[in-house]
Structures are given as structure tokens and as C-alpha cells.
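Lab meeting tomorrow. Look over both lines:
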Amino acid sequence: MTASEPKTFTAADADAAKSWPFEEARRLIKRMERVKKTGPVIFETGYGPSGLPHIGTFQEVARTTMVRRAFELLTSRETKLVCFSDDMDGLRKVPDNLPNKEMLERHLQMPLTKIPDPFGSNESFAYHNNARLRAFLDQFGFDYDFVSSTEQYQSGAFDATLMRMLEKYDDVMNVILPTIGDERRQTYSPFLPISPSTGRVLYVPMLERDANAGTVVFEDENGEKVKTSITGGAVKLQWKADWAGRWFALGVDYEMAGEDLTESTKLSSRIVRALGGVPPEGFNYQLFLDETGKKISKSKGNGISIDEWLTYASPESLSLYVFQAPKKAKKLYFDIIPKTVDEYWTWVQKYRDQAGGKALDNPVWHVHQGTPPVDTPPVSFALLLNLVSASGSADPDVLRGFIKKYRPDASDNELAATDEMIAFAGRYFDDFIKPHKKFRAPDARERAALEMLSARFKELGEGGEENDYQTAVFDAGKAQNYENIREWFKGLYEVVFGQSDGPRMGAFTRIFGAAETAKLIDAGLSRR
């Protein structure tokens, strides 16, 4: 696929852009004007490696990158994206989609970096999942700095923030305690010590605190009172305080989060203010849902995984889907893939002739960070699926032959763009269309219309105009007095293609051939 030469945009073009990444970038600009910060502007995304990386993680990095690039265009400032792994957290429960569950059960409450890898390929469970995270972020070409929570705590990078948290302990507690139940208030502390006897992360109250010395006293699991420094990885911060501490320590300027973390975002922002910092800008996006309308969960493994999407469609189509309407809850299941693929190529085609703010608001500018491809396939993904269905073959040579007949002027680059889609179409058809095809016999009115249509296609022959074939379909339905022409098309698709939806018949007949399409119709007529 040939990438386009980057278009040149002026400050006026950027000011005219209205897509959501630019709107977010403008809110961030206002924050930076308030704090008067020098140096790189820090964007962050967080990841909890208690489960395998999933599509929700990808979409957060993708969307944050889109805001980052819009901000850079508007300001020309240096930026950095931090991908932060909460890998010092204790394992609270064993995810459903992992092997060696019994081993993991024995390591509950242990820091994720201290738990053996259930897959047996890495130093620890966290390192395995961190490697998976980095691999698929690299696959998409994201520019990021990976940061491990464990390394930050143990190296001392968070020591100053921990000391500040201890100094402001009462203020932090005043933020958190009103938001939790009475029972939990009795044991809550922003500091979670690591047990010197078991190595587990402990949710216990602090019996004594010394802000000057930087020490706390707590009761260990064996009943002994332990005095420990809060620095050097001897303790970690509990969730909302940890998020706030990370923002404060790293100087994070922008981080978005799912709508389920709206209240956590507010509380962590209040903690940052209690520490004397300024919370980052960001927004709460709506979550992806599976086919049944339930939230996609990394522990349950429901919904579509990254690998599953990439089995049936390109990375760019996935990026387009996450770009669209981030504040709207959307179902993420296999049926939306063909539509999204075709929408992606439609936007690529539009970008060629766009300029200024309209080009910057085109999703593919954000998907490709300014350099979308030039060449587009001569046929849609939906039409390819129907060709595979009708021909009974996903052989690239067979399908290429159909395409060349339909678009003899298609360039080698355009055909190359189609080759990738042909492979995707074959897999998608085998897994999601073929198992559900159900042919039926036509009723009397459908039979009369189909007989008329078959005869007309034979009369028109090969090489006819697409509109002529399409008109023949409408004429056949009108001749049988269909008041709602959609009923006619639905019957045509069910009898001829074995499904309730189907191709635009003019384009399909032009590419598949009038005689071959007539044969399909005749086969449908033979069903009793």
C-alpha cells in the first residue's frame, strides 16, 4: 500500500478542525497555559497486568495518541506518551482465561511481578503480560515509553511522592474515607505494605506514622508489629492514591479513562491537589460492550480480542472503530467488522480531495498520523464476501479475475490493496457467513419476479452497465407489485444467496457476470 505524502497544514487549518481529538487537545492547551509547565507534555495510559492485554487497552492508547498528535499540530510542543503498568499490584482474583489456575490461586495477594508466569515463558506473570502489551502496541506502531510500577517503586523514583503522601496523610484520608463503607474505613490506608514474612500486599491500617523519618508501623500477617520505611519498594500506594501518586510523580498532563472510573478520576484528582499538584486533563470514554451488551472484561475474555479482529480485518479498520464516537457505548462484536472495513476505505478515498480542517477531521488522518494510503481497493469488503459466497471460492486468483473484469483499469497497487482483503474475506465467510446460510424455495410472486430477472440478465449479457443490471432487478420487483421493494430484495437474497442481506445487485452482476448470476437465480428457482 502506498502511503500518501503528508499534506501541509497551516495554523488556520488546525484551528478549523473540530473532530474530538482536536477539541481534547484544545482543553489540554488551556491546562498547560494555567500551569505554565516547561519541557515535554506528558500523556499517560495505564494498564493492569492481572489479565491478558485486550482491545480496551489498545483503544485507550490509540485514542490518547490521536489527542497527542492533534496537540502537537496545534502547539508544536514536545510530547511523550507513558504506558504505565500497575505490575506491583497484588493479584486479587484469578482471571477466567488463564492456565495453571491452581498455581495462581496459591499466589493471591502477591505482587504481580512476584507471581510465576502461568504460561512458563517469562520471569513472572506481570512480565509475561507486559511483554504481550508491548508486542501488540509495537505491532500498531505506537510511540510510547513503557514504565513499570515495580521498577518505579523499587528504584526510588516514587520516593519523593511517597514522602509527600505521608506528610499529607490526613488530607488524603479526608478525601477517601467519606467515599467508602464503615467497615473498610477501619482498616483503610493509602499505604499498602509488602509483608516481610509472606511477600504479600497487605490491606492493613497504619498503627503509627512518622512523616519526618518516612516510616510507618503495621501488623504483619504473623501478628508481629513491623516498622518499615515507605521508600524503596517496601510499600505501595492503594488504587486511587496510587493513581494520584503516579500523576504527581511523573507530571502527567493528560490521561483519559473509562466511564466506570469517573468517580475514581475525581477522587484521584482531589488527592493530587492535596499533594500540591495539578491533576491532568482528560475525559471519561464509554466502554465497549460484547454482543449481549455486557462490558468487555480482560478477566472474562468476552468480546473481540486484538488477534481476533486482525484475523478478519486490518489494524487500520480497528483504529477507525475506536476513533468513532468515544463517548458513546458501542457493541464490539464480529458483525461490525465488514461495515467498518468499508467505512475505512471510504474515508481513505475522501481524504485525497480534502484539505484544511476537513482533512484533519477525516478519521484516517488520525488513524495514520497524517499519512493515510493513496490506493484503495476497486471493490468493497461486502462485495468480496458476496463473491466468495456466490463462487464458492476464496481463491485469490479466481477473485482477482472477477475484479479485473469489473475494473480492468485497476492499478497494481489497487489490486494489491485488494489482496489483503481477499484473505480476510475468505476467513470471515468461513467462520461467520457460511455456517448460517439457509436457502429456501421462492413463493409464487418471488418465482415470477426471479424468472423475469433471470431472463433479463441473459438478454443483457456480459459487459452491460451496472445501472442496467440494477434497473432490471427493480423492474422485476415492480412487475410483481411489491409495495415495499425491500421485501422483494429480501426474498431475492434468501432464495439466491441463503441470507437475508446481500449485495447491490447491479455491481454484483457486473463483476460476477450476467450469465453466472442468472445461473444462481435459476438454481434458486429449482428449489421446492
About this structure: The first strand starts at residue 41 and ends at 47. The chain has a mean pLDDT of 93.
